[in-house]
Write a structure and sequence with these properties.
single chain; alpha/beta; 6-stranded mixed β-sheet; 10 helices
């Protein structure tokens, strides 16, 4: 660590109180220990999961989607240098647990802190973040709504130097989840049909993933005309303006666009628990219904006659394998095949997080990004 920062850094962070509120507070972030990296954050995406974290056990440094520059690295970290632009990945693979060894790195048992005896204390992620002198947790072991964060080296992926960080930051969650759910999990084939409910950050990337996969029919469904227009620009072939309280109208419209049988693959990206099972109504017999928003809560589905061989999947993070998937995303961006700039509809300062949440919940923004530095 010769020549690198060994001191504690301080700066503002958005801290959830566990009761539905948050405040901007000054935190202290330690220098990196062995296998750790301290990152100076530049930009962070805002999504529904961040809003849900307001009620997780607090205090909590919020944010799980972001990009910045390496500020310093700990012993044993290779391939990362101070000043290097990097992307953060919240499903951090340890490479050694049961799931990682079978290639399911997004399900890493160390990251998800399962009670696996042989992992022991190694489950714990990098610490060294304090609020008023007391340790404070970070959302998904990242805490990107802050000027600095301390993470395991496995959470860090170098970025191409010419990729703007306020666009690149959304690759680490919204883009990976949407595109990965299409190409890695559903394995959409050229000429197939898809429908996606919800055209926010994840849903718009389901649209992009379907276009990249060569889908012939891409049906976008949302309550907001502006989001539907954005979906059209990103590759949607058909648009359905949904009405609150009338899911059957959506089912009928999708079937009308798919010869009455339903689409090959249907994706839920609304985050609304009551809609989590609706893709089963939109997909044909033998097709795939995917809930990709992480919606949790009560939901139900009616099972009509002739309801056969449908698969219901709840993929996590687009089945991300960082070493495989992020270089592929970077290449698609460089080739002009994957759009980032038009996905980000609004920018906010860190102090504007409350407005970012309001715009997201009202459906006014498609994807908001905090500019931190």
């Amino acid at each position: 660590m010769t020549g690198q920062a060994r001191h504690v850094v301080t700066g503002p962070a958005a801290i959830a109180d566990g009761q539905g509120g948050f405040s901007i507070e000054t935190i202290e972030v330690d220098p990196p220990g062995p296998g750790e990296v301290r990152v100076a954050m530049a930009a962070a995406g805002v999504c529904h999961t961040d809003h849900a974290s307001l009620r997780w056990p607090g205090p909590l440094v919020m944010g799980h989607e972001g990009a910045g520059h390496v500020e310093s690295v700990g012993d044993g970290v290779h391939g990362l240098e101070p000043g290097q632009p990097v992307l953060l990945n919240w499903a951090i693979p340890c490479g050694d647990c049961f799931q990682c060894m079978r290639g399911a790195q997004a399900l890493c048992e160390r990251t998800h802190e399962l009670d696996v005896p042989r992992l022991g204390s190694s489950r714990a992620h990098a610490g060294g973040t304090r609020l008023r002198g007391e340790p404070v947790a970070r959302s998904f072991h990242l805490g990107t709504f802050a000027t600095h964060t301390l993470v395991r080296a496995e959470a860090v992926t170098p970025l191409p130097p010419d990729l703007p960080l306020d666009a690149a930051c959304i690759l680490g969650c919204a883009v990976m989840t949407g595109v990965g759910s299409v190409v890695n999990v559903a394995a959409v084939a050229p000429g197939e049909s898809i429908a996606v409910m919800g055209c926010g950050g994840v849903g718009l990337n389901v649209v992009q993933g379907a276009r990249l996969a060569g889908a012939a029919t891409i049906i976008a469904i949302d309550r907001q005309p502006s989001r539907l227009q954005r979906a059209r620009e990103l590759g949607a072939t058909d648009l359905i303006l949904a009405t609150d309280g009338d899911p059957q109208a959506v089912v009928d419209a999708v079937r009308a666009l798919s010869d009455g049988r339903g689409v090959d693959h249907a994706f839920e990206a609304t985050g609304v628990p009551a809609l989590a099972f609706l893709p089963l109504q939109l997909v044909r017999n033998g097709g795939n219904a995917l809930q990709v928003s992480g919606a949790h809560g009560d939901g139900c589905v009616e099972l009509p006659r002739f309801f056969w061989n449908k698969r219901y999947l709840t993929p996590l993070y687009g089945d991300c394998v960082p070493a495989r998937d992020f270089p592929r995303l970077f290449a698609w961006v460089a080739q002009g095949k994957l759009e980032l700039d038009s996905l980000v509809s609004h920018h906010y300062p860190l102090e504007g997080l409350d407005r970012a949440f309001s715009d997201m919940l009202d459906g006014y923004s498609a994807k908001g990004v905090l500019r931190i530095a």
